[in-house]
C-alpha cells in the first residue's frame, strides 16, 4: 500500500511538472511527430510528404474509403448501411487531412520553425498562460481520443459473437455475418481505429497549438496597442507592427492549411449527424452514434477555435481604436497606426498594383521567417514637412512619396497630375 501511495505521489509530481514547466513546444512537437509516424505506418521509412509517400498512402486510405462506399451502395441495408456511412465520413476526413499535409508540407514545416523559434524567446505571464493552456488541451485531446478509440475497439471484441461492430464494414472478399469473415472485418476495423486515433491526436494537437499560439501573439499585440499614447515612440510602434505582422503570418498560414479541411469536415459531419438521427430513430445498432458524436464534438471545437481567432483580431482593432493614438505628436507614427488598422485594404491595393514588399500577409509569409525582420525601411512614408497626410484611400506608405519645395507631390519620381494624393 505504501508503494502504491508513493507511486501516485511521484506521478502527481511529474504531472504537475509537465503542466508548469518547459513551455518551449518541444513536448508538443514530440507527441505530434511520434503519433504521426505511428499512424502513417511507413514501413519503408519514406520521407513524409514526398510524392512516393503520397501515392503509397493514397492507395492505403483510398482502398479503405472504397470499401466503405461499396458497403453503402451494395453490401448493407438499413441501419448497417447508415453505420457504414458514418465510417465513410470518419475516414474521408482522415484522407483529406493526409492530402493537405502532403500538399502543404512546406507550410507545416514553416509553422514548426516559427513556433519553435518563438518558444525559445522570453515570454511574460500572459503568453505563459496561453502556452499552459496549449499543454493542457493537448493532453486532454490525447485522453479523449484514447478513451474513444479504446471503447470502439473493446466493443468489437465484446460483440464479436453478435456480429455487431462499432462501424459496419465488409472487406470485398468476405461474406457478411459469417465466421471467419466477421473476424477479418473486426480485425480490420480495429486496426483502422487505432491508426486513426493516433493520426487525430497528431493533427488536432498541431491544430490546437498553432491556433492558440496565434491567439497568444494577438493578445500581446492587443496589450501593446492599448498602451499607445503621447509617450509612444518609433521603437514602440515599430515593435507593435512587427509583432502584429508576425501574428498575422501565423494565422494566415494556418488558415491556408485548414480551409480545405474545414470544408470536408463540414460535409462529412453533416452526413454523419443525419445518419445518426436515422439510427437513433430506428433504435438498432446505435453504438455507431458514438463515433458520430465524436465527429460532432471535433467539428464544434474547430468552429470555436476559429471564432476565437476572429474575436482576437477584432479585439486588437478595438484596442487600437480605444487607445490614445490621436495624442501621437509625429504624423509618421499616426500613419503607422492607421496602416495597421487598414492592413487588409492595403493588402488588396498592393496586390492590384503589384507593389513589391508591401504588407500583404501572404507575401510577408513567403519572404520572411519569424519575427526577426527589420521593418524600419518600410516606414519612411511621406516626410513630415509634406502637407499630405495619409488617410484611407490616399497615400500608401509603401510607395515612395515625396514633396518638392513648392509642395507638389511625387510618386516614384514622377509628378502627380493636379497635385493629387499618391493613391494607387
TrEMBL record:
GO molecular function terms attached to this record: odorant binding; olfactory receptor activity
Keywords: Cell membrane, Membrane, Olfaction, Receptor, Sensory transduction, Transducer, Transmembrane, Transmembrane helix
Keyword check for Magnesium: no
Pfam family, one: 7tm_6
Subcellular location: Cell membrane
GO biological process: signal transduction
Entry membrane topology: Multi-pass membrane protein
GO cellular component: plasma membrane
Transmembrane parts of this sequence: 51-69, 81-105, 136-158, 186-210, 286-305
Sequence similarity: Belongs to the insect chemoreceptor superfamily. Heteromeric odorant receptor channel (TC 1.A.69) family.
Record-given protein name: Odorant receptor
Organism, scientific name: Clunio marinus
